[in-house]
Each structure stands twice: as structure tokens, then as C-alpha cells.
Write a structure and sequence with these properties.
The complex is a heterodimer of chains A (91) and B (591). Chain A has 91 residues and is mostly helical. Chain A has helices at 11-41, 43-46, 56-86, and strands spanning 50-51, 54-55. In chain A, α1 (11-41) runs antiparallel to α3 (56-86). The radius of gyration of chain A is 18 Å and the shape is elongated. Classes of the chains: A mainly alpha (91), B mainly alpha (591). At the A-B interface, α1, β2 and α3 of A face α5, α10, α11, α13 and α23 of B.
């Protein structure tokens, strides 16, 4: 995420891009936390809890992270539509 | 009606459907051939992407892989779904806004360099051919096992079907056929899964069933039972893994990034009308994929319980019919090491490699084996992992039409992926190599003809690889994901998110990522397979996961080189600005 060139983009475009990147960083952190965090790095600790008959870490690795991935994409779709309208850049 | 007749009816019926769709949706222009005219509804495209993505391996092999490796198989479940988050958030909308036809188009234009385009084409062709050989093989296997047709004839029939709809219909024909194929394959996968889940847990939904109690009054949960059964026999507990954490981490990441860098997946997002539709479409694709990917762990676990229950400590003469039927196809075998006529299923291989039958019958009636028994293991049972899906309807005593459905589903999965791969190969030849690099003067009509000829040639090569699979095919599937992760993904990502990235940096990055990953995998898989163990791996990372290091090398070299070379020209910075905003995507650009 390099230096912006003010002469090449309008104010709205730069503000739109900054807001998009901020949203991306948040969502990618959740993406990382649920799969690599809960499903791999902290799995052993999480396995002491259960969700139904699933040990929690195992559930994240084989079920939960996939559901969270879907939720992340649709949340991004909805948020971006709002952000695009706000800066009048929607397609 | 007997099972065999039902199989012919189901497979014949679905083939007629695919050909009918192909004739209805013939491509008339290069734009229709490459990107289906850029007017596919996002949900339809999502469904087609899911069929494109889920190959013969996902359909036939994945549940078995999970059944036999338990937690370790999570790398595939997370790796092959998490990549869609990267696609939807980081790549797809921007590539759609860019609005051309192929992945090398983007790399060649963004890095203002024919060299970059050709490097991308080389990566693409290598990745796609590795992948496609496996699909044609899958077609042959389904034909030979379910229709009693010779593998060669099976592959030729499969080639004929793909030829009709991929060469005539291009992306347009493929897209609508894939929608039909998705419906066939998901139905075929879910029906036995519902039955199995209901029989074992009393809950028909497999995703819930896997977390429920076994339906035998013991009050034990399915996973507890499985852990207990397997540890009793001396196996690792199902819910704990045997791979090291760093390896699990790296394989998962390599598969995710590799998925996002696979050209036949990326190109699907060029077919929707708008940039915002590309995001939506990736979301729908993941919904359709997740339906199978969240069911597979349940199918694997249930099948494993049934399998141990049916086979272990059972007299061979009294074993269920499915075991002897699949023994006839070489997918199961019994080597009676202690001569008691009872099958002991234990950790370790019963013997090295695949079963070689002597043609004689052993004392209990089993097919006698020529393989030398493995003295280090008490295991007497050989079982191919594919059986967990293929034999499921029989293991669970399901009606014959379910078996027919499995045959049609396996073929749908293999054909849909093969068609998508053929298309990216043919468009990279006709569009990137001919039109954009070596023969810019050709007319759109000639380009369309070249695309069809390239698709035909690719089908023949793929068919040949399917009939005579070189020994290395199974060994190098890791190549496809590792190379995509180490070469294409970083180049596309930096092309969007860094305006300072120039052609020198991108080319140096792609080449170094590619060479490093290629050399590492080739060394452990082909040159010196004996050394392929955790002690010799770099940082304990297996060849399957090394794409992650290749990717980091790509990023590091690209950034370093771009610091010391000329910045990209102003018009490229403008191009990046314009792909970053969704407004004005319009039509896929015609040339």
C-alpha cells in the first residue's frame, strides 16, 4: 500500500480506496484468526471445549472456518456496496 | 431394473443433457468463446465455478482422504475453501474491472511487457496440464468401474463429450453445462450422505450428524466413538493429527493462495457483467462448494466407522459382498499373515504398494497376493481411499439408483473441471501467444479458429496423458498449487495493490518464486524421493507446503528489484487507479 499520487486520483477515489483497504485488513485478520488461529495454532487449547460432539478446534478446522469464510465474503459484498454509494463510485 | 441398466440410463441421460446445452449455447464470437460474452448472472457463475473447481479428486477421493487421516485432512478443507476469500476480497473485482480475457492479459498489460505475459503463459500451461491429466484419468476410472468399459475407451468417450461442448461452445457452452453438472454432482454426493448420517446418528443432516451421538444407545458422540475405535487398534486418534504444526500451517496457506492463483478459477470471474458481481459470484461459488466440503468430513467419518465395523476381526468367508466386489477391481485386498482366516485391520501398510494378485485363490477364498508382506505391521487389509465414496452406497445397503447416481456424479465432476482447464489452455495459446504476442495481425475469425484448434490439441494431449499416465502425474499435483502460489498470485496481487511495482520486479519475482518451488518439489518428488522426510525438509516444510516460501521469495525479490529500477510509466499508474474503482467496468473489452 504505497504512496498515493494526488495528481492522478480524485479525492473521492483516494478516500474510497483507503476505506476499502481498512476493511480488507479487518476481514483478512478474521480470515486468519478462524482458520490459522483457531483451526491450527490454538487448536489443542480449544479442543478442551466442545460444540455438540465436536472438539472446538477440530470443528473450526473442518466446519467452522468454512462457514466463517462465506460470511466474510457476503459481509464484504454488502459493506462495499455502501462504501461505493457513499463515494458515488458504484457500477 | 438391475443396477447396470440404471447406470447406463443415468450416465446416458446426463450426457445427452450436456450435449443439448452445448448445441443451444454455441459461441459465435471470441468474446463469447473466452468469457461467455461477459453477461453471466453472478449466482449462475458461482455454480459454474463450483463445478469447475470440484474435480474428480474432490468428488471421489477427498472423503477417503479425510477418513484415513482425520484432523490432518483439514489442510484440504480449509485450503481449498479459504482461497475464495482471497479471490473475492483481493483479486476478482479488480480483474473484472480490468476487463480483458485471460490472466496473462492482466500480467502482460499491467507490467507493460511481453516477457511478463509469456512467463505467465508458461506458468498457466504447466499448472493446467498437471491438473487435467488427473481429470481424464478420473473419467477413465469411473467408466471402467461402473460401466465395465475399458479405461482407454472410457477416456475416449469422455474426450468426445468434452470436445463437443468445449470446442463448439467455448466459455458460454462450458458455463451452462457446468451448471447442469453441478446439480448432478451435488445431488449424487448428498443423497448417500443423508442416508449414512440418518443410519448412524438418526439425524439426516451430515454436518449436524458428525457432531451428534451414535444411534446405538451408547450415548457416545460419533467422533468420540471413532477416536476410541481407532486408538484401540493402535491408530492415532481421529481428531488429533500426525503432521507438524508448521507443515499443516504451510500446506493450508499454499493451497489457499494456490487456489486464488489458479487460472481456470480466476478466469471465471471475467464472465460476470460488473466488478461488484465478481465479489458476489465468489461468495456464491463458496456457498456451493461448501455444501460438498462440509459434508465430506461427515461422509469420511461415517464411512470409517462402517468400514472398521464391517471388516476388522471379521471372517473373510463371511465378509459383506462389497468387500469382495471391490477386491475384484483391485481396490481392497486381504493378506492373511497369521493364517486365521480373520481380517485384522491395524496401523501400517499390509504390504508395499498396490496389490498384485497371483490369479489364484487363498485358503479363505480371497484373491491371493504376490506382494511380500510387510513384517513390521500386523495389518492384513489393503484398502484404497477412493472406496470410501465409491463403495459407500453398497456399504450402507442403499438402493441401486443411488449407485447409478454416483457414476453420473463422478463423471460430472471430472468433465466439468477438464472443460474449464481446456478453455484456459486454448485461450492462452490463441489469445496470449498468437494474437497478443507472435501474430498480432490475425482477424477475430482466425483467432476463434485458433482457439478451437488449440482446444482440440489440448484434449488430445490430455486424453493421451489419461490413457498412459506417466508415473509422475500423481507425484506432481503439488506442483499446480505450489507454482500458482509462488508465481501468479503475488504478481497479480502486487499489480493491484502496489502502484510502484514495475516490470523488472514482477518478472524477477515470478521467475525466482517459480524456480525455487519447482526445484524443491522436483528434488523431493522426482530426483531423490528417498530423502522426502521431515528431517531433510527446509524448516520442516513438506513439498506440498513449500509454495508458501516460494511466495515469500517472490514478494521479497520483486520489492527489492523494483526499488532499484525505473518506476512504472504514468499510464500504468492510471490503469491501476482505474481498476481500483468499480465504476465503468462495462463490457469485457473486445480486441
Amino acid at each position: 500500500m504505497d504512496e498515493e499520487q494526488p495528481e492522478e486520483t480524485t479525492k473521492a477515489e483516494s478516500a474510497y480506496w483507503r476505506e476499502n483497504v481498512r476493511l480488507l485488513v479487518t476481514l483478512m485478520s478474521i480470515w486468519f484468526a478462524c482458520s490459522f488461529g483457531a483451526g491450527i495454532l490454538f487448536r489443542d487449547w480449544l479442543d478442551q471445549f466442545n460444540i455438540g460432539g465436536y472438539p472446538l478446534g477440530f470443528w473450526f478446522a473442518q466446519q467452522g472456518s468454512i462457514y466463517i469464510f462465506i460470511a466474510l465474503i457476503f459481509y464484504y459484498v454488502i459493506r462495499m456496496r455502501k462504501i461505493e454509494r457513499k463515494y458515488d463510485l458504484d457500477d | 431394473m438391475d443396477t447396470q441398466t440404471l447406470i447406463y440410463i443415468f450416465v446416458g441421460g446426463t450426457f445427452a443433457l450436456y450435449i443439448g446445452i452445448a448445441l443451444w449455447s454455441r459461441a459465435a464470437s471470441t468474446k463469447e468463446f473466452y468469457v461467455a460474452g461477459g453477461g453471466v448472472h453472478p449466482v449462475v457463475n458461482g455454480m459454474a465455478t463450483a463445478a469447475d473447481w470440484m474435480s474428480a479428486a474432490s468428488f471421489i477421493s477427498m472423503a477417503g482422504l479425510i477418513a484415513f487421516s482425520g484432523y490432518d485432512a483439514s489442510v484440504y478443507l480449509m485450503g481449498w475453501t479459504g482461497g475464495y476469500v482471497l479471490l473475492a476480497l483481493l483479486l476478482a473485482p479488480y480483474l473484472r474491472k480490468f476487463g480483458q480475457f485471460t490472466v496473462p492479459d492482466f500480467i502482460g498489460t499491467r507490467y507493460y511487457s511481453k516477457t511478463a505475459r509469456v512467463v505467465a503463459v508458461i506458468c498457466l500451461i504447466f499448472i493446467s496440464f498437471t491438473y487435467i491429466a488427473g481429470q481424464m484419468r478420473g473419467v477413465g476410472i469411473v467408466f471402467s468401474r461402473f460401466l465395465d468399459v475399458d479405461i482407454t475407451l472410457g477416456v475416449i468417450i469422455g474426450m468426445g463429450i468434452v470436445f463437443i461442448y468445449a470446442v463448439l461452445g467455448g466459455m458460454k457452452g462450458i458455463t451452462y453445462t457446468q451448471v447442469a453438472q453441478y446439480c448432478v454432482l451435488i445431488f449424487a454426493y448428498m443423497v448417500p450422505a443423508f442416508f449414512l448420517s440418518f443410519m448412524i446418528t438418526g439425524t439426516p443432516i451430515p454436518q449436524i450428524g458428525l457432531g451428534s451421538q451414535v444411534n446405538d444407545g451408547s450415548g457416545m458422540f460419533v467422533l468420540q466413538r471413532l477416536d476410541a475405535v481407532l486408538t484401540d487398534l493402535g491408530f492415532q486418534a481421529y481428531t488429533s493429527g500426525s503432521k507438524s504444526m508448521i507443515d499443516v500451517f504451510c500446506i493450508t496457506l499454499a493451497l489457499m493462495v494456490g487456489t486464488a492463483g489458479l487460472p481456470h478459477v480466476i478466469v471465471r470471474f471475467f464472465t460476470v457483467p460488473k466488478a461488484s458481481d465478481a465479489r458476489k459470484s465468489a461468495g456464491w461459488a463458496l456457498v456451493f462448494i461448501a455444501l460438498l466440503y462440509t459434508t465430506a468430513p461427515a461422509v469420511g467419518a461415517f464411512a470409517m466407522l462402517n468400514f472398521v465395523d464391517d471388516v476388522n476381526e471379521t471372517q473373510y468367508s463371511e465378509v459383506d459382498d462389497w468387500f469382495t466386489k471391490w477386491e475384484g477391481y483391485g481396490l481392497t485386498a486381504f493378506q492373511d499373515k497369521n493364517g486365521d482366516g480373520v481380517m485384522q485391520y491395524r496401523p501400517g501398510n499390509a504390504f508395499e504398494g498396490a496389490p498384485e494378485y497371483t490369479g489364484e485363490t487363498g485358503p479363505s477364498g480371497e484373491r491371493a497376493l504376490a506382494n511380500t508382506p510387510n513384517p513390521d505391521s500386523e495389518n492384513e487389509v489393503y484398502v484404497d481411499k477412493d472406496i470410501m465414496v465409491l463403495a459407500n452406497p453398497e456399504i450402507a445397503n442403499l438402493p441401486p439408483w443411488v449407485i447409478a447416481l454416483m457414476a453420473a456424479g463422478g463423471l460430472a465432476a471430472a468433465l466439468s473441471t477438464a472443460a474449464g482447464l481446456l478453455l484456459v489452455i486454448s485461450s492462452s495459446v490463441s489469445h496470449d501467444l498468437l494474437k497478443s504476442t507472435f501474430a498480432p495481425g490475425i482477424s477475430p475469425k482466425q483467432e476463434l479458429l485458433a482457439a478451437r484448434l488449440a482446444a482440440t490439441a489440448a484434449i488430445i494431449v490430455a486424453g493421451y496423458l489419461g490413457i498412459y499416465p506417466p508415473g509422475w502425474v500423481a507425484q506432481v499435483v503439488a506442483f499446480a498449487f505450489g507454482l500458482a502460489a509462488a508465481s501468479l498470485f503475488p504478481a497479480i496481487f502486487m499489480g493491484i495493490f502496489s502502484k510502484a511495482m514495475n516490470k523488472e520486479g514482477a518478472i524477477a519475482g515470478m521467475v525466482s518464486g517459480l524456480v525455487f518451488t519447482f526445484a524443491y518439489i522436483a528434488y523431493f518428488k522426482l530426483v531423490n524421493p528417498a530423502a522426502n522426510s521431515a528431517d531433510n525438509w527446509l524448516l520442516g516444510i513438506s513439498p506440498e507446503g513449500i509454495g508458501v516460501i516460494g511466495m515469500l521469495i517472490n514478494f521479497a525479490i520483486a520489492i527489492a528489484v523494483s526499488r532499484f529500477t525505473a518506476s512504472p510509466p504514468v499510464e500504468i499508474r492510471r490503469l491501476v487507479d482505474s481498476i481500483r474503482v468499480p465504476r465503468g467496468a462495462g463490457d469485457a473489452q473486445g480486441h
